[in-house]
Amino acid sequence: MQRFQITQGDLTTMQVDAIVNAANTTLLGGGGVDGAIHRAAGPELLAECRGLNGCETGQAKMTAGYHLPAHFVIHTPGPIWQGGAHDEDRLLAGCYRSSLALAVHAGCRTVAFPSISTGVYRFPIDCAAKIAVATIRQCLAEYRTLERVTMVCFDSHTRSAYERALEESEGRHG
Ligand code: APR
Asked: 2 with 140: CB under 8 angstroms?
């Protein structure tokens, strides 16, 4: 089975060790997938987040999953798109890298991501997908204990962008 999979669906239903939340730097919830995760996890998630004192863009912090099927939630604030000259690419790669490093050090074997920063934060989807796929593939090569990383796309447009990015990445590097 492929260790990197792309699916379309609702991240909050994923039965994996950890799901990743496209959070903001306050870690106090919001809309989009952040809102969906907090609704599904229940109020204890926000209570735990309150004690984390926020999180820097491109970094990640971990909580329990509470009422979610996932055991853990890894919260990572993605960069807000400002035209591409404000270190957005490096910060976005950092979200994936920091989240997977945290997951591996917590003993997680299966992790599911949303498409970080491509909603409210307006990061262009094709560029974001290339960065996400390249970083996830590098981390899968680096962390042999990771069994499977899944990109859970909320709509078909997003899913096509990730499938294109994966085809290009495999074509280049095999
Ligand atoms: N499952 C999977 N993906 C989802 C779900 C869901 N239940 N809900 C939304 N998405 C998708 C969006 O369609 C988009 O492709 O997650 C991707 C990221 O979009 P946002 O949730 O808007 O996240 P982001 O662009 O990183 O903006 C983060 O939005 O919700 C606030 O608090 C959050 O301030 C932060 C900002």
From this structure: no
Tokens of 60: 């990640």
Q: Is the pLDDT of residue 109 over 70?
A: yes
Separation of 5 CA from ligand 1 center, angstroms? 19
- For tokens 């309150």, the residue is 50
Is residue 89 annotated as a catalytic residue, yes or no? no
What pTM does this model have?
0.98
Beta bridge partners of 23: 77
**DSSP H/E element including 134:** helix 125-142
pLDDT band at 76 (very low <50, low <70, confident <90, very high): very high
Contact between 104 and 148 under an 8 Å Cβ cutoff? The reply is: no
Indicate the top mutation candidate among 26, 33, 127 to test ligand 1's pocket, ranked by most ligand atoms within 8 A of CB: 33
For ligand 1, atom 35, which residue shows the shortest CA distance? 24
Ligand 1 atom at shortest distance from the alpha carbon of 34: 30
Provide mean pLDDT across the span 132-141.
98
- CA separation for the pair 158, 174 (Å, rounded): 23
Asked whether residue 45 carries a pLDDT value surpassing 80, the answer given is yes
Reading the block at residue 169, the tokens are 């990445």
Mean pLDDT across 60-75:
98
